[in-house]
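As a warm-up, study this chain.
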Amino acid sequence: MTHPRKKVKKPEPRITRGVRVRGWILTGAAVVCAFGFLIYQLYKIQITEGVYYRSLASAQQMKDTTINAVRGEIYDATGKTLASTSIVWNITCDPDHSEGLYTTADDEAKTRTLVTGVCAEVSEGIARILTAGDGSDGAAVDTASQEYTDTYNSVYAAFSKINSQYRMLASKVDMPVANAAAAFIKNYNKTHDGVAISLSTEKTYKRTYPYGAFAAAVIGFCDNDGAGIYGLEKSYDAQLAGVNGRSLSVRDANGGDAANGDATVYAAQDGYNLTSTIDANVQEVAERYLEEAVKANNVSNRGTCIV
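Now compare it with the structure written out below.
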């Protein structure tokens, strides 16, 4: 008769003091490394790259607006205006601060994806207003026209630059058009939860010449930025142009000026006026007879006469 063998219980492994010490050392080293890495990151953010992050925060929280100086006028010897400045408006957008135009992936890269539906709706509304050009909502605009199509594509391209803080939608439009665009965006943000489209209107100026090409060889003209590039406009550009100012204010959630935020304003210095020695009446007579002489003598190029 055989008897079953008894199972011998193996002794449990004993953790020696040396093993415990090594474990404590490794744990302590891991904590020190983690703490050191945290200190390094804080040092990097606050000291090494502090200027960059402070400027980034300032750009997100503060709105810096240029206050354009009024260009001086040019008069003839009797006080008639030969070149003047009229007030117009630029319409700009800030896609970077327009929540609702994009979604952000939940990863370290913060990759943004354009919400095409919102971009298309907003672009259509603004394009209708700009195409109409009369301060209306543009409901009657023919959306099949080339003018509307070009305007829509331009506006959509501007809004779709979701990493940009400044994009021009329209330049030098009349006040009713600028007001209509601002009202459309305000209403859109109000009626769409979670959407905050940032749009701004800024006052600027347009150079006009009441007498057209009259004495153009002397008066000259300005470029699209308002800088003199010919004639008196160029020769006296520094005196006529003036000095632009700035306005620094706190942004609201939509990227505009906060309702109760105080703005720091550096006023613009308007340009000087210029009085020439040209008499508009005498010059007009001279140019009229010169035009007749050019036609009578079959002049192939042109004639110029300044009195």
